Amino acid sequence: MALTKQNQKKSKKSRVRRISDWLHLWLGIASGLIVFHLGITGCIFAFQKEITEFIHRKEVFVEVPAKPQTVALSTLKSTAEKALGGKKKISFITTYKAPDRAWEFGTYKAGDPKAFWYFDSIDYYDLVLINPYTGKVTLVADHKYEFFSIVKMLHWSFLINHPIGQQIIGWATFIFVFLLISGMVMWWPKNLKKSNFDKSFKVKWKAKFKRVNYDLHNVLGFYVMIICLMLALTGLVWAFQWFQATVYVVAARSTTPPAQVDVKSDSTKTISAIPFDVAFAAAKQQFKDADRIGMSPAEGGAATIYATGYRGDETYWNYDMIQFDQYTGKLLHRKNQSEKNAGEVVIGMNYDIHVGAVLGLPGKILAFFASFIAASLPITGFIIWWGKKKKKKNPVTADN
Questions:
Q1: What are 266-311's pLDDT values in tens digits?
Q2: How are beta strands 292-296 and 92-96 bridged, if at all?
Q3: In 3D, which of 30, 22, 40 has the Cα closest to residue 368?
Q4: Number of DSSP helices (H) and strands (E) in the chain, helices first
């Protein structure tokens, strides 16, 4: 009677374990290319801020005069609009507490909402950098075709504007979460003897390629599992509304959405000064602890001027927001970070967690290496499967 070693090994596994292993294999093969794509684009995007600032250092950073005095924000806004040909209105502005930073003036207009591709869904998306002390334009950039904008949209939805793009990304990410958990089950050592410890926690670099590849898949997969889970789960928040709603409800412990305050500008009242500059001056007083202040001009009618004070050089989750009357610059409403419930805070932190910025540069480094290893897992996993498939053609038998 002959029994292969493969069958002997299988017979020791429970049915649940055999099903888990089977799903890990075939779901991994099915989603492998997408996981590889997400890992590589995630790696590229991880240091987009640092790379951009290095390439455009002369445009991003400015010389600070002995007696720093910035040009009126409304004047800088007009300068930015002229730099764009005079036909595009600035819709968002970022000013910096750091004195050596150029200020950013952006404009965006959506294209065809039914367009299938990303490029057709945007009419224009431009960014102008200006020296706030001299009013000189340092850079005009078309962000619609900017390298990292394209990488971001590749990561987001394969450059597909149709919901199917993000659904593909979302379900592949959902499968990846299962693969991480099932991989942990497969990796878990039966005991912590030294031989098992070394096999589970160390890569045997001096072994043959087959063994090194096996260790790269299992050992490195274990070390980045928690980080990869965080990256995947934060990705699911964007991919599926039901997942985002679940995260909000669990964190907030309530199904009630946050209250919205509706305030409007009063067109019957005006002032001699420029209201936008009045609002910005008030925002600087209100946001003394902010590292960046975002200003959004009102767009006609009863709309308001928005001012957002961000704490942190790069993160977006920790901010207070103020609304001003567009005709007088009067403060109408303020919502502070401290007033937000836990659900709002968690959802607000989603982007910063996903890119690792919530932990600063160390977090981005961790996100980079986790993304790189995540991209390698489908490759090393496929090599393991291919090796076993070839081995099955010549099974080793034991006669009894």
A1: 999 999 999 999 999 999 999 999 999 999 999 889 999 999 999 9
A2: antiparallel
A3: 40
A4: 15, 8
Burial state string for 28-67 with b = 16 or more CB within 10 A and e = fewer than 16: beebbebbbbbbbbbbbbbbbbeebeeeeeebbbbeeeee
Torsion of CA 375, 377, 383, 389, to 10 degrees: -130
State pLDDT tens for residues 41-59.
999 999 999 999 999 999 9
> For residue 315, with 0-12 CB atoms within 10 Å meaning exposed, 13-18 middle and 19 or more buried, which class applies?
buried
The phi, psi pair for 205, rounded to 5°, reads -65, -25
Of 248, 247, 232, 243, whose CA–CA distance to 169 is shortest?
232
User: Per-residue b/e over 186-221, b at no fewer than 16 CB within 10 Å?
Assistant: ebeeeeeeeeeeebbeebeeeeeeeeebbbbbbbbb
| DSSP designation for 339 | G
**What is the token pair recorded at 261?**
């305050």
Terminal-to-terminal C-alpha distance of the chain: 5
Report the C-alpha gap between 363 and 361 in whole angstroms.
5
Rounded CA gap, 1 and 316, in Å?
67
Alpha-carbon distance 24 to 40, whole Å? 21
